[in-house]
Design goal:
Elements (H helix, E strand, L loop, with lengths): L2 E7 L50 E7 L6 H16 L2 E6 L17 H23 L3 H6 L4 E5 L4 H4 L5 H10 L1 E5 L15 E6 L16 H12 L6 E9 L3 H40 L20 H4 L7 H7 L9 H15 L15 E6 L4 E5 L4 H10 L7 E7 L4 H5 L10 H17 L2 E4 L2 E4 L3 E4 L3 H6 L7 E3 L43 H9 L10 E2 L2 E2 L13 E3 L3 E3 L16 H7 L1 H9 L12 H17 L4 E5 L1 H12 L15 E7 L6 E6 L14
Parallel strand pairs: 2-6, 2-7, 3-6, 7-8, 10-19, 13-18, 13-19
Antiparallel strand pairs: 1-21, 4-5, 8-9, 10-20, 11-12, 14-17, 15-16, 20-21
Helix pairs in contact: 7-9, 16-17, 18-19
Length: 706
């Protein structure tokens, strides 16, 4: 019987910590090539950067995220930080303006008083100091990156000229020992700025209302001008400033943000209450046990792990208790109380009257900025030149705070898995074929239906596979029906008796809805109305190139119209970018064979799994380079996405989505015949659910070492 293996909540890292301080500037498996030898007494000290370690060409940037309160600035800053570190190897640090407020925030109801101005000035100076310390810091990695500009110079310059040809080898060894280090370019020289991975400081505020008057909040032209001049006047920094303004003028998006925030506050509040109740009960039990009185134990409250609430990080600031207001909202299926919506808009409008947007009248044309309108619906850029600036602009066009639901699964067990071989393009084993059938039956009720308004409702869904046959065969039983706009949002209905024949023993999988107790929820939902129309020929479920009432689903011409009213569920998209790591000369070998035939290579890979490149093959860093464009597309989706891929690829995707470091990726286990569901939005940290569909098979295959 398929089993749900639990839900985990990934806590975000503290905002003020660096999200990616690099310890190395080259992969460890190259280290032996950089040591002096008799044949090469003056080796390259630092090789050119490989994919994923090039960073931002050493340039320093300060990104300042601005906008009215509750526009998702915190979310934008965190996603951008994670992306720049994970895929580009940049050293990123987040600076939360709200964390630097030393006293009560200034009330918007009155102008800043002298004492408030003193506090604001002190807060700004403190953040500026920390910012410059970060940008000017030169750690061990930066010193190592400039190794080629520190060259050895012989103490006796005539030694080489006098050396006889037959004594070249011995003289070279002696020269290695008889040298001293000479700085070709001083460490303080600006020419050294482009040798490390680059640094990015991202300034934002988690309390837009409370920190509105702070200098680094940049809510006016004067504050923005001050921030730009503060950075640019320090020539030693050599940093570039980019303003990122988040503008949301869609009432629907604003209410979605508010609803998500309220739900998050309620979960935090419930979690805090549950912990207080548990702590109180445990304290009472301890006292009773100390007196020898038996206390009956109560069952643990099932549900989703939560974390403590923080009024600064999660509240709306300015002394307003939005947690209490959120508690007045009913269940997640209900709408926001109209009074709460009116009060929210009234408070935000008070800030809007004094907030000054980035001006397009020429007065701020010398600044570099991006205007992100309705999360990518429209993007305005000004004075954006250079590699990093364009990468940031490209990434911001796809990021949005609405919920993401991503399903990760490896292909079913392959014949190479059975033999312990790596790589190749092998077909599925009998156990893998059974998993493919179970996955096909599982997807419709548990992916194509998502929670909406308290019910499981039919939702648009997507499917990606790699180009290797074992992933395509794993997804072959997933249905691809054509649905219409009228079908979307259709609530769940009882299934037909034979709906789960592909699952073992006809049992339906266990599933836990967000915020509800775990356990069996009864029969999984089905779309009987849609099924009947598929059987009667009212709609077509054939994949690709299907003409539905004269509409060519594969045509991009004449967008809109009838084409926008139909959708092909789980339309398979094949990406070579999702292919397994290429093992080069070791393709089709077992790890025992590699260790026996190439022990030195096996040892290097064991010490540097993420950076080691198979001979004429790939490394994990190479996979990062080909996953980068796919992540842009993934971030842009609003629909649930199922990715059927391979262990090495899914390790990296899993770490990126859950906020882990990429160094952790090679050590993760991605079990066979298991679906991992990852959910995140602009307000909550990622959560994870695992569904084991079976059948049982050996998990100790050759891919474990990939």
């Amino acid at each position: 019987e398929p089993q749900r293996q639990g839900r985990r909540s990934m806590e975000p890292r503290p905002r003020v910590e660096s999200s990616g301080a690099l310890n190395d500037v080259y992969v460890k498996s190259q280290e032996h090539l950089l040591r002096p030898t008799s044949e090469n007494p003056l080796p390259t000290s630092v090789p050119p950067p490989s994919a994923g370690m090039a960073g931002l060409i050493g340039v320093r940037h300060v990104l300042i995220v601005i906008g009215l309160p509750e526009r998702g600035k915190c979310f934008i800053a965190q996603r951008l930080s994670k992306y720049l570190y994970f895929f580009h190897g940049a050293e990123v640090k987040l600076f939360d303006v709200a964390e630097y407020m030393g006293c009560q925030p200034v009330d918007i109801g009155h102008a800043a008083q002298p004492q408030d101005e003193c506090r604001i000035e002190a807060s700004a100076n403190t953040l500026t100091r920390d910012l410059k310390l970060f940008l000017n810091s030169s750690g061990e990695a930066a010193r190592r990156a400039g190794g080629n500009m520190t060259v050895p110079v012989p103490r006796n310059c005539q030694t080489a000229q006098a050396r006889a040809a037959e004594r070249a080898m011995a003289a070279a060894r002696e020269e290695i020992q008889n040298t001293e280090q000479h700085l070709l370019v001083d460490e303080a020289d600006r020419r050294r700025k482009n040798v490390d991975s680059g640094k990015v400081a991202i300034i934002f505020t988690s309390d837009g209302m409370g920190s509105f008057y702070e200098k680094w909040a940049c809510t006016s032209k004067e504050r923005r001008r001050w921030a730009a001049e503060t950075i640019q006047s320090d020539k030693r920094l050599g940093a570039k400033v980019i303003f990122i303004e988040v503008i949301v003028n869609s009432a629907k998006l604003m209410e979605q943000n508010l609803l998500s925030k309220i739900r998050h506050e309620r979960r935090l509040s419930r979690g805090a209450e549950a912990r207080d109740s548990r702590d109180s009960r445990q304290s009472r039990e301890g006292e009773e046990n100390a007196r020898g009185i038996a206390v009956p134990s109560s069952p643990a409250t099932p549900g989703r792990p939560t974390r403590a609430s923080s009024s600064r990080n999660h509240g709306y600031g300015s002394g307003y208790d939005w947690s209490a207001a959120a508690a007045e909202a009913l269940e997640e299926s209900d709408d926001i109380p109209p009074r709460l919506v009116r009060e929210f808009h009234a408070r935000v409008n008070r800030f809007a009257r004094v907030y000054v947007s980035l001006q397009e009248d020429g007065s701020e044309d010398d600044l570099s900025y991006i205007k992100l309108i309705n999360y990518g619906d429209k993007v305005v850029t000004n004075n954006m030149h250079g590699y990093l600036r364009m990468r940031i602009a490209q990434f911001l066009t796809v990021v949005h705070p609405t919920p993401h639901v991503i399903y990760l699964t490896r292909h079913g067990q392959s014949t190479y898995n059975q033999l312990g071989k790596i790589g190749g393009n092998s077909p599925l084993s009998p156990a893998g074929e059974e998993y493919a059938r179970r996955l096909g039956a599982w997807v419709m009720p548990y992916v194509c239906y998502q929670q909406a308004a308290g019910l499981d409702s039919l939702t648009k869904t997507r499917l990606w596979t790699s180009s290797l046959q074992r992933t395509i065969l794993t997804a072959q039983h997933i249905p691809h029906p054509i649905i219409s706009e009228e079908d979307l949002g259709t609530p769940s209905v009882p299934p037909e008796p034979d709906a789960d024949d592909a699952l073992a023993n006809g049992d339906s999988p266990t599933r836990c809805s967000a915020g509800r107790s775990s356990g069996l929820r009864g029969t999984p939902p089905r779309a009987n109305g849609l099924r009947e129309r598929l059987r009667s020929g009212g709609l077509s479920g054939v994949v690709g190139g299907v003409a539905l009432g004269g509409i060519d689903l594969d045509s991009d011409r004449g967008g809109g119209g009838d084409r926008d009213r139909v959708w092909q569920q789980m339309a398979p998209r094949v990406y070579r970018n999702l292919d397994e790591i290429f093992a080069g000369e070791y393709e089709g070998m077992t790890y025992e064979e590699i260790q026996h035939s190439f022990p030195s290579e096996a040892k290097m890979r064991a010490t540097d799994k993420i950076g080691f490149r198979y001979p004429r093959g790939e490394s994990y860093l190479d996979i990062l380079a080909r996953l980068d464009p796919l992540v842009h597309e993934l971030e842009s989706y609003h629909e649930p996405l199922v990715i059927v891929s391979h262990q090495a690829v899914l390790r990296l995707l899993y770490c990126y989505l859950t906020g882990r470091t990429r160094a952790q990726a090679p050590k993760l286990s991605m079990p066979l015949h298991t679906v991992i569901r990852i959910t995140y939005d602009g307000w909550t940290p990622p959560t994870e659910e695992r569904f084991y569909l079976g059948p049982e098979c050996s998990q100790t295959d050759g891919q474990t070492h990939l």
